[in-house]
Amino acid sequence: MADDCFPKRFSKLLLSNAGPYRQLPVSSNFALLKQQEGVGYTNIMVKGTQRKNPVSKSAKKSVTIKDLAADLGLSITTISRALNGYDDVGEKTRARVFGAAKKYGYRPNRNAQRLVTQRTRNIAWVQADNDRKFVDPHFVEVMAGVLRGARTGNYDILLTSDTSEHQVAVYERYVGDHSVDGFIIDSPQENDPRIAYLLEANKPFVVHGRTKRADQFSWVDVDNKGNFEKLTKLLIANGHRHIAFINGDERFTFAAIRHEGVAQALETLGLPPQTVRIYNAAHPMGDAGFQLTSQALNDGEVSAILYSSSLMAVEGQSALLRAGRRPGQDIAIATMDDMLHYLDLSPYEDLFTFVRSSLRDAGELLVAELIRRCENEDSTPNQTIVPSEFLVAPYMDDTVLGE
Questions:
Q1: Whole-angstrom Cα distance, residue 19 to residue 34?
Q2: Pairing verdict, β 21-26 and 29-34
């Protein structure tokens, strides 16, 4: 996308999912509005031409429900209820209505639809105001999936940010003015005030990750504890007793739960905690991969490194090279792989053991679950584990994974 499509400074993005962008000022901010495919094609009625059919592909004005009703000989109410999925409309009638809508290029009027359904078809995603967040490839992968899922469900994503201490105020504003139907929360922390507020407000939301209150809300997550318990057991089964674990920031639950998985493996095997030494990273993860790998290698006995991210594992290779260590020969590497599309891992396929799970798929699942909750507010929250796949390096014995 051309750089001039984006304003240099903005605090709010309204991201739609089809067609070219156009840039509009909104108060002191900017919004990026995607023109929906098809908005530009209008039905034109040739001047002076009489047509029996009140709906024409050549009409200058957009097709309305009233036009469809006149064309099909049905009431406006029947057309509206058919388009909005009410079950009191017969299947044959519904098929006629949708067929005519497709034929004449009918597009629902969002404002009118909102009055009928009491829904905006907007989803809010509030981010911490952090310069590093928007260049983090993990976030970009999730966003790609979220946008794809929103497009499929015909929803728009309202992406905005504020400082961490003011984020709840943004949620309060959206809940108060009814401008969104639901919320996506990512990077949860234990006792997260965003989750507490939305539970109290009884608004639909979904969390990428989970907390100890996870049974009370919808979430999508990977099996962080199970995956890292298995990776730890794999390294130990291959004879490693001096392991470095380069983890994320344990203020966030994903990293804390991964630590729990490592600790569980040691407890199950009856090994002391010092078998695995923990190093915690903050953003940027790439820099942390090099720096923390260098620190870990100060312990000359380290024979294996477990990474929380393939990005950190790749960046750590410079430190290994500098220390004269060779993955697959005198040190074993195992890592979580979030399937970052920009990161080519093919050079490491025989050197690293991966547990692979798609953040992009997680993003799509987040939106699908949230749309389900928005459109069925009395439904029970779903908790979804994104599948993981183990790809074990050829120099490792993977027997323990089958036990």
A1: 6
A2: antiparallel
Instruction: Provide CB contacts within 8 A for 201, sequence distance 6+.
Output: 171, 175
- pLDDT, one tens digit per residue, over 338-384 is 999 989 999 999 999 999 999 999 999 999 999 999 998 788 999 99
CA dist 312 and 327 (Å) reads 15
What is the DSSP-derived secondary structure letter of residue 377? T
Find the Cα–Cα–Cα–Cα dihedral 368, 361, 182, 161, rounded to 10°: -160
Cβ atoms of residues 19 and 165 within 8 Å = no
- Taking the C-alpha atoms of residue 112 and residue 101, their distance in angstroms, rounded to an integer, is 16
For residue 74, the tally of other CB atoms under 10 A from its CB is 18
Tokens of 326: 């060779």
CB-based contacts of 317: which residues, under 8 Å, 6+ apart? 327, 348
Spatial CA neighbour of 348 closest among 312, 322, 386, 323: 312
User: Taken in order 69, 72, 75, 78, is the CA torsion positive or negative?
Assistant: negative
Residue 23's Cα: distance from chain center in Å?
25
CB atoms closer than 10 angstroms to residue 352: 25
> Nearest 5°: CA angle at 224, between 272 and 360?
155
Q: Which helix (H) or strand (E) element contains residue 13? A: strand 12-15
SS3 of residue 90 by DSSP? coil
List of E strands, 239-373? 243-247, 276-280, 304-307, 332-337, 352-356
CA dihedral (399, 401, 402, 403) in degrees, to 10, reads 90
Question: Each residue of 40-90: pLDDT tens digit?
Answer: 333 333 333 444 455 544 445 688 888 888 999 999 889 888 887 777 889
Enumerate domains of the chain plus CATH numbers. 7-37+117-219 (3.40.50.2300), 42-106 (1.10.260.40), 224-358+388-402 (3.40.50.2300)
The interaxial angle of helices 137-153 and 359-375, nearest 10 deg, is 40
Task: Look at residues 125, 115, 130, 219 and name the one whose alpha carbon lies nearest to residue 174.
Answer: 125
* Torsion angle (degrees, nearest 10) of CA 144, 356, 267, 301: -110
The two tokens of residue 76 are 């406006």
| Averaged pLDDT, 80-103 | 87
Token pair, residue 374, equals 């928005």
